[in-house]
Amino acid sequence: MEAGDQVAQELRFASSFDIRAFFDEATNSVTYLVADPAARTAAVIDPVLGFDPVSGRIDHDGADRTLAAVEEGGYSVPWILETHAHADHLSAAQYLKKRTGAKLAVGAGITKVQSVFAPRFGAADVTADGGDFDRLLEDGDELPLGKLEIQVIATPGHTPACVSYKVGDAVFVGDTMFMPDYGTARCDFPGGDARQLYRSMQRILSLPRETRLFMCHDYKAPGREVFAWETTVGEQCDRNVHIGGGVGEEDYVAMRTARDATLKVPKLLYPAIQVNIRGGRLPPADANGTRYLKLPLSLPDDV
Ligand SMILES: N[C@@H](CCC(=O)N[C@@H](CS)C(=O)NCC(=O)O)C(=O)O
Ligand SMILES: [Fe+2]
Asked: Exposure of 96 by Cβ count < 10 A (0-12 exposed, 13-18 middle, 19+ buried)?
């Protein structure tokens, strides 16, 4: 398959329940629709809002593809689930909430993320109590989805709010690991912690080897031509370039810390954080009726 064919591609994986993946090439992000087709019920994980940072134009093309699949399956949607407050793309949760009546859930650690970033953006409408989300999730929580059950696994490290969602033999791992040939998530955002991420990943890697793992991002790895987002616990244990083959905690933390020092700020960091600490709600309109995003400036001493 040509790499270009994979833009916003949908894949249906064989399973007793249904998982569809929608890849957004602009942000290298994957949205999942997890369904119990018999019960005509589905959950959306990590919906992406289209955003052009140059023009400020928002679009719903990706979210509409997910909605089309919801309509095609005749699904009701009780849950929209965020794996964390994304720092690289805006969430389409509010758009989908309005159209499906779903409840929006995120890890309870979101309050820590809100308390760091709301003051930084002067976001007086954001209280650090998880407002804008309908449900704050703790490790071990279970959410019903038709005859299925979504199990919440707290997997902090990339951010304090990170959770993974386990449904049957599938785990949506958010930004913990990436594909085995790319490695793992960065830990240099506020509240990030490489040691914590290592321990979170060990919890996932202790699941049966055949457990299917679904990534939140794919950036391709050097030498790989196509995007990919599904692997297994066994493959990660054997050949993940950061943790495979039994890499120890101290070695991992040293590697992660050194690598994080080389990474650039994500292109959409400021727009994404301002929208995502609000559960995907855009900032309130200014007196002139227009909504604005803020860009905090860092100045050299001589200004
Ligand atoms: N180039 C991307 C980078 C996005 C990024 O930093 N992604 C995070 C997850 S939110 C990460 O862990 N990246 C790991 C890496 O780039 O090695 C962008 O600007 O959006
Ligand atoms: Fe992330």
From this structure: buried
Distance CA 91, CA 149 (A): 24
Probe target for ligand 1 pocket from 173, 201, 217, 268, with the most ligand atoms within 8 Å of CB: 217
Ligand 2: centre distance to CA 296 (Å): 20
User: Is residue 239 in contact with ligand 1, taking CB distance under 6 Å?
Assistant: no
Looking at residue 100, what is its pLDDT?
Answer: 98
Distance 196 CA to ligand 1 centre (A): 18
Contacts of 259 (CB under 8 A, 6+ apart): 186
User: Over the stretch 127-171, which tens digit does the pLDDT of each residue have?
Assistant: 999 999 999 999 999 999 999 999 999 999 999 999 999 999 999
Sorted by sequence, the CB contacts under 8 Å of residue 251 that are 6+ apart come out as none
Residue 35's identity, in one-letter code, is A
265 Cα to the center of ligand 1, angstroms: 8
Q: Whose CA is nearest to atom 18 of ligand 1?
A: 266
Alpha-carbon span 21 to 45, nearest angstrom: 10
Residue nearest to atom 6 of ligand 1 (CA): 266
pTM confidence score = 0.94
Which of 211, 232, 229, 230 lies closest to 169, judged by CA?
Answer: 211
